[in-house]
Design brief:
Blueprint lengths: L5 E4 L6 H11 L1 H8 L2 H11 L5 E6 L2 E10 L2 E2 L5 H20 L10 E9 L8 H15 L4 E7 L3 H9 L3 E7 L4 H4 L3 E8 L5
Parallel strand pairs: 5-6
Antiparallel strand pairs: 1-2, 2-3, 3-4, 3-5, 6-8, 7-8
Length: 199
């Protein structure tokens, strides 16, 4: 039986813990080598989530999917030095921040940057990912962005197929062979979707 899914911008405070858990699980391959402690890593995410920069999918008031975004005003995860120091200590916090900086993506003019999309493993197959992508593009249109950008790693072909079906076009692929032994992926592809194609 299909569950009724509500798609909305932003989330309430009581949704944050669940959102952080889903995000960590979805990006475990990237996050675990950095944090090396799942519980403390989730603590960082819970403290860092900016609930205004996310589209969420809710089922019975429980987060079952989310798509973060980044724009000039802010981003989904605002991982500050203080949060990292409080969680991992001075040296451990700064060391992890330096590694996280490798994955930082700069904003580009007239472009909404999508910052991670997550669907609960038990809820896949219900079109939640598609609905979240549509909502991100709708947000970009409403706020007069010319395009939406996302990046997908080379070990996630299913996600790339979804993005292509939704009209995202690959622009460039960057390879980082030295990352593979640590993170399990060795490259990422930048994809763009013009908002004029959203209709």
């Amino acid at each position: 039986m299909m569950t009724d899914i509500v798609i909305q911008k932003g989330m309430a405070a009581h949704h944050i813990e669940r959102a952080a858990d889903l995000y960590y699980a979805a990006f475990y391959q990237k996050l675990q080598p950095i944090f090396r402690d799942e519980e403390r890593g989730k603590t960082v995410l819970r403290k860092s989530i900016n609930a205004n920069y996310v589209i969420v999918a809710l089922a019975n008031d429980q987060v079952v999917g989310l798509a973060g975004f980044k724009e000039a005003g802010g981003q989904l995860l605002d991982i500050t030095p203080k949060i990292m120091r409080d969680t991992f200590g001075f040296i451990g916090g700064w060391a992890r921040l330096l590694v996280l900086a490798l994955f930082e993506r700069k904003l580009e003019p007239d472009t909404l940057l999508m910052d991670g999309i997550v669907v609960d493993a038990d809820m896949r197959g219900q079109g939640i990912g598609s609905k979240l992508l549509d909502a991100i593009v709708d947000y970009a249109c409403t706020h007069q962005y010319a395009q939406v950008r996302l990046d997908v790693v080379d070990t996630n072909p299913r996600a790339r197929q979804l993005y292509e079906r939704k009209g995202f076009i690959a622009q460039k692929t960057e390879y980082y062979g030295w990352l593979k032994p640590i993170f399990g992926f060795s490259g990422s592809t930048t994809m763009l979707k013009p908002t004029t194609d959203s209709g």
